[in-house]
Amino acid sequence: MLLVGGCGGSGPIETDETRTSTAPIAQVLELGKDDVALRAGEVASPVGFTPGVTFTVGTGWTSVHRYADAFDVGKADPAADRPLVLVTFSAPAEKDAAGALDTIAATQATGDVHQGNGTLLGGPAARLDVVGGSGPAYTSRDAGISLDAGPHQRLRFLATDTPDGVLVVGVLVADGPWGAAGLAAADAVVASLRATT
Q1: Phi, psi of 173 (to 5 degrees)
Q2: How far is Cα 105 from Cα 112, in angstroms, rounded to an integer?
C-alpha cells in the first residue's frame, strides 16, 4: 500500500528551447500531488530530484506524487481500485544503497525477504524482494513517499550509489491474475532508466 506524507548513456534533458531534432522531447514531471496522465514515451524526473533520471513508459501510465526526494508512476488495476503496478524513484535517508536495503530488510521480519543483485542505470545494483509481510517497509529521505508491505502483494527494491546521490527504485505489485503483467510492466520501465546530467 502506498502511503504519502536501465541501461545506456547519460545526457542532458532536451527541452523546447534546446531541441535540435524532430524527435519527441521528454515529458518533465512537475512537482506536486495530483493524478497526471503520462503520454507514452520518455519521461524525466522532476526538476530538483537527484540523481536526475529519464525512463520510458507505454500507454496508461500516470504519476500522482512528485516531490524533491521521491516520485512515482503507475498503472491502474482494471479489476480493483488500486494500482496494477507502482514504480517509485527516491533518495533514501541512508547514506548508501546497502544501508537503504538493510533498513528495509530489518523492518520486514514477517515477510518473505530475498536479497540479490539487479541492474540500475546500466550497472550493478543491490536488490531486495519482499513478499507478503506487514507494516512500513520504506520511507524516502523527506517522507515524500512511503511503501508498506502487506499480504497478497510483492515489493521489489533496487538501490545504487551514483555520483549525484543514492537512488532507490521501488516496485509494488499485487498478487493475483494481474501481478505478472504488472511486474513485467515495471521491469520495462526500470530497464529503460537512464541518468541525466
Answers
A1: -135, 150
A2: 10
Contact status, residue 132 vs residue 151, Cβ threshold 8 Å: yes
Instruction: Return phi, psi of residue 45, to 5°.
Output: -60, 160
C-alpha cell at 25: 522531447
Give the distance from CA 182 to its chain's centroid: 13
Show me where the domains of the chain are located: 2-8+40-192
- The C-alpha angle with vertex 191 and arms to 92 and 101, in degrees rounded to 5, equals 25
Tell me the pTM.
Answer: 0.85
Architecture in CATH for domain 2-8+40-192: 3-Layer(aba) Sandwich (3.40)
User: What does the pLDDT look like over 121-171, one tens digit per residue?
Assistant: 999 999 999 998 888 999 999 999 999 998 888 999 999 999 999 999 999
Higher pLDDT, 179 or 151: 151
